[in-house]
Design goal:
By secondary structure, the protein is mostly beta strands. It starts with a helix and ends with a strand.
Length: about 950
């Protein structure tokens, strides 16, 4: 994987060791199912548009709802070479080849025994890996048959946040309010900030008192309520930032109640000595809020163990008929640790709860004595992050099975018929440890004093009179244990065991492919073009069926898991497709002056899908060699991709999003400072946004109170197919007057229409309010706003729905270049100094544009310069081969890119760009004898740090990595 992904066209690929938080992949039905999966992504167009083949045949997908292949299931010792065809290739290989094809070609014959042992470790020793692989092969039945068996084991240890300097101690930066903007109106309103926290909640439990019974913490108190924990002579209610907005003012720390510590952004701005100016800041630096950065125990990279067994066999039954088979079983186990089990706002606690700190209970009792009616309406409202209920640990076990059987018949000198059947299955079980069960939590926090004077669940005390809302337990069975929410670490083990359970979900992906193809050329019929050659032809048909099923646990089906919160029906769907295809290669001219070769090629594929109906892919290309050392190639293709199962059938699953509200006054002000929409430096028109926000009832002085937005994501059964139009033009030269020099440059231009994508919530919000034609129902209908003027979240975005859509189009254009030179030092000196290989290859993008609104086709979302989408990617390598020694050096360069936000929002941020990145690797290989060699090296030699956000790109958060191995052949 690492070798393939070094190619600039595959720079956006995901490997199995990367940061857990960054993996959000198209078609993924559940975030956990991506753990340990390595997928390829050509041209930044998505893994679902990159077709991965084994020996030209399809491979079952690696996760539910998707066709993307987990290339970790391909044993490295079995691979002979990798062929990469960029540009639309659906006419030749079928759907999913919109951006291109990566074809892993396996060894056809092998005799003997080949093994490899390799170990890796990070510079600080916290990221360790081991790879053991073996390849065995030989012939049988008087050499009529041959067989190969590859066995590979890989281990990768878990990388935790505390193991990486960029993450340790809440060091990961997240986008939020810029501290510099408090006193400087000219400063950017947003910045990337370490140790940022969400001020509306806390692991300690941020809480306040609701006297009037409206479900919100009050910002003022009855006259009889005297509670002043900081002894400043002022009643505490509404004394803290966001406490003034109804989020409560207190926490319990080590058994004592105190005011919520607001941190930098929520504290005194140093201007006038009070806190009022910063009351609207929802996020803070430091303090008691819920961290947005990972805790030190959270995983940056998962623990992974895998075993792959792959067997290939060929048998020459007769001179004209060969049988073949390919059998593979891969087992992968991964484990990762997450943060808080849940962060829940608006928990209501009755005032007879014995866990309420005595000082507060006494004050409440005094108020109730003066006004008994308040006792019937008063409760405590708490926002709490449940980090102290145990680790949020996820275990995945994935099994991939692939069976290929076929026969090749020779019917003439050039006629070959290949018939094959391919079956694949990926099954997975995911176990989520310590998930909070909703009805149990509500029962456990409703605490009273029992007849013995001890805290007890109210449901247990009243037994059968308890509400029928309890579904996962019986109120009178004695299993409920009271849960103390006041203070970090306050919950007792028995209560934790009651409110949490391990839950599991299973998924299965099935693929069946039947293929029949015929290849021949016209020489079989004694026909060749005058001045050219024989015409090559390939025709055939294919039937393919894809199906996928994801079954959540019973608690999820009943909406009882806090992390889901809604009834989850899982994922189940299938489709099939019948295809007919044909290819022609026509050598028009050969071996003539200025026409050493002129060849025309064309291909077409007709497909009938059970979901989207009939469509046609085709391509036309040509090769012109004016001389033996110059080749010009060109092509045009129309490639089609039908929506996959996850895009069509993924059931509604609740998510919590963290996004910026485009109607926030500071955001619009920053856009206004940047200029108008006609200015290239400010692609978003602030006046359009301001007018649309006003039309939606959002006033100009609106300030976002919470970045936490609840919502759901789902598939869309009404999706249409997407179609890509691709132009390519390339030049390859190997000049004879400079032996050893090879130069290649390819231009590509891809336009993808009716793009199937699940736009981010930020894209949905921005597209809603940035449309020049007014509020856009396509996007504005995907969310709502809180219209309750008494709510602390009044006008905040809520109920977001992020679903798959057919967007307008996506375009990408650029050039690939590859220059290599081999210098034979033996020819320059009497001494044998070996060879030097030099290579420079890369990709320069001209544009990468998304047009997300079909109703406004000129509305642009420019993605170039965004993270993982730099304009220029280059690799430079130097290799010296001398006798039995090989020394290599590699330099990977990426141009400047914005860290983790849209390029359109650059002007809102201070220090948004990462700068140019240079990563160096070195390696050494030495042949001990004809059968054994040792090798080693250092990746990320200069210990470059990843970008400061959770994308952890473009290097591993483990830092410098060392590897050492031995390879042998017997």
């Amino acid at each position: 994987m690492d070798v393939v992904s070094q190619l600039p066209a595959l720079a956006d690929s995901i490997n199995s060791a990367q940061t857990v938080e960054q993996i959000e992949i198209e078609g993924d039905a559940d975030g956990g199912s991506s753990l340990g999966v390595a997928t390829l992504n050509l041209r930044n167009l998505g893994t679902k548009r990159t077709l991965v083949l084994i020996d030209g045949r399809r491979h079952v997908g690696g996760r539910a709802g998707d066709t993307a292949v987990d290339i970790n299931t391909i044993p490295i010792t079995m691979i002979d070479r990798v062929e990469i065809l960029t540009g639309g290739a659906s006419a030749i290989y079928g759907a999913d080849a919109v951006s291109g094809v990566v074809n892993f070609i396996t060894k056809k014959y092998f005799e003997g025994f080949d093994f490899r042992v390799q170990g890796t470790t990070s510079g600080n020793g916290h990221r360790n890996g081991l790879q053991l692989s073996a390849l065995m092969g030989g012939t049988f039945a008087n050499k009529k048959g041959s067989a190969m068996v590859a066995i590979e084991y890989r281990h990768q240890s878990m990388l935790s946040c505390h193991d990486s300097p960029f993450c340790r101690g809440f060091g990961v930066s997240t986008p939020g309010r810029n501290p510099a903007a408090i006193n400087n109106p000219d400063a950017a309103p947003l910045a990337f900030i370490p140790n940022q926290r969400e001020a509306s909640s806390s692991p300690l439990g941020r809480f306040g008192v609701d006297f009037d019974g409206d479900g919100l913490a009050d910002t003022s108190a009855p006259s009889g309520f005297v509670f002043d924990v900081d002894n400043n002579g002022v009643v505490d209610v509404g004394q803290t930032p966001l406490g003034q907005e109804g989020f409560g003012d207190w926490v319990v720390d080590q058994g004592s109640i105190r005011l919520f510590e607001p941190g930098q952004l929520g504290g005194d701005d140093g201007d006038d000595g009070d806190d009022d100016d910063n009351a609207g800041f929802v996020n803070q630096v430091g303090g008691d809020g819920t961290p947005l950065s990972p805790y030190d125990f959270e995983s940056l990279g998962p623990k992974r163990d895998s075993v792959v067994v792959n067997a290939l066999m060929r048998y020459q039954l007769t001179d004209e008929l060969q049988l073949y088979s390919d059998t593979k079983v891969a087992l992968t186990q991964t484990e990762a640790v997450g943060g808080a089990l849940a962060t829940i706002e608006g928990l209501s606690l009755a005032t007879d709860n014995p866990y309420i700190p005595e000082q507060l209970r006494s004050s409440l009792a005094s108020v109730f004595a003066e006004d008994p009616a308040l006792a019937d309406t008063t409760s405590l409202i708490m926002n709490r992050s449940f980090i102290d209920l145990g680790q949020n640990r996820t275990h995945n076990e994935r099994v991939t099975l692939r069976l290929v059987a076929g026969a090749v018949a020779k019917l003439g000198e050039t006629i070959r018929v290949d018939a094959s059947y391919n079956y694949g299955r990926t099954s997975e079980e995911i176990v989520f440890e310590n998930r909070i069960i909703q009805d149990r939590l509500l029962a456990a926090i409703d605490v009273v004093t029992d007849q013995n004077g001890a805290p007890a669940c109210r449901s247990s005390v009243i037994g059968s009179q308890a509400s029928s809302r309890f579904l996962s337990f019986s109120p009178d069975d004695g299993t409920c244990h009271p849960l103390n929410l006041f203070g970090f670490g306050a919950p007792a083990p028995a209560a934790i065991n009651f409110v949490t359970q391990d839950v599991a979900q299973t998924s299965v992906v099935d693929q069946q492919v039947a293929n029949l193809s015929l290849t021949a050329d016209s020489s079989e019929f004694d026909f060749s073009l005058p001045g050219g050659g024989a015409i090559a032809i390939a025709v055939g048909g294919e039937y393919r069926k894809e199906s996928s099923r994801l079954q959540p646990d019973a608690l999820g089906v009943n909406g009882l898991r806090i992390d889901d919160g809604t009834i989850t029906t899982g994922l189940e769907g299938s489709y099939d497709v019948w295809e007919l295809f044909g290819e022609l290669s026509i050598p028009l001219v050969q071996h003539m002056p200025a026409l050493e070769q002129l060849t025309l090629s064309t291909a077409a594929r007709f497909a009938e899908y059970s979901t989207v109906g009939a469509n046609l892919s085709w391509q036309l290309g040509g090769v012109w060699k004016p001389t033996a050392d110059v080749l010009v190639r060109a092509g045009y293709s129309v490639a089609v991709r039908a929506p996959n199962i996850g895009e069509l059938f993924q059931a509604s699953t609740q998510n919590v999003f963290r996004r910026f509200d485009p109607c926030d006054q500071a955001v619009i002000a920053a856009l206004s400072q940047g200029g108008s929409g006609d200015d290239d430096d400010a692609p978003v028109d602030p006046e359009v946004r301001r007018a649309n926000c006003a039309a939606d009832g959002v006033p100009e002085d609106y300030t976002q109170t919470s970045q936490r937005i609840s919502g759901e994501r789902a598939g869309n059964p009404n999706l249409r197919e997407e179609t890509a139009y691709t132009w390519t033009l390339g030049l390859l030269t190997t000049p004879r007057f400079i032996p050893g020099l090879r130069m290649m440059v390819d231009y590509f231009d891809i336009e993808l229409n009716d793009t199937i994508d699940r736009p981010s919530l930020q894209d949905i919000l921005n597209n809603c309010y940035d449309s020049p034609s007014g509020l856009d129902d396509r996007f504005c209908s995907q969310f709502s706003r809180n219209r309750n003027p008494d709510s602390p979240n009044f006008l905040a975005v809520e109920n977001a729905r992020v679903t798959q859509l057919n967007l307008s189009r996506t375009t990408v254009a650029g050039i690939d270049f590859d220059i290599s030179y081999t210098l034979n030092l033996r020819q320059l000196s009497a001494l044998d100094l070996g060879l030097i290989n030099l290579r420079l290859f890369g990709t320069h993008l001209f544009w990468l544009d998304a047009y997300p609104n079909p109703d406004d086709p000129d509305f642009l979302n420019d993605e170039l310069f965004e993270v993982r989408r730099p304009q220029l990617l280059m690799n430079a390598s130097l290799q010296w081969l001398w006798s039995d020694l090989t020394i290599g050096y590699n330099l990977n360069m990426m141009s400047d890119q914005i860290v983790d936000v849209r390029i359109e929002d650059e002007e809102l941020f201070d220090d948004a760009f990462a700068g140019e990145t240079f990563v160096q690797d070195i390696s050494v290989q030495y042949a001990l004898n004809e059968n054994f060699l040792v090798y080693g090296g250092i990746n990320n030699l200069s210990n470059v740090s990843p970008f400061k956000t959770l994308t952890a790109f473009p290097v591993s958060p483990a830092g410098r990595l060392y590897f050492l191995g031995i390879r042998g052949q017997l």
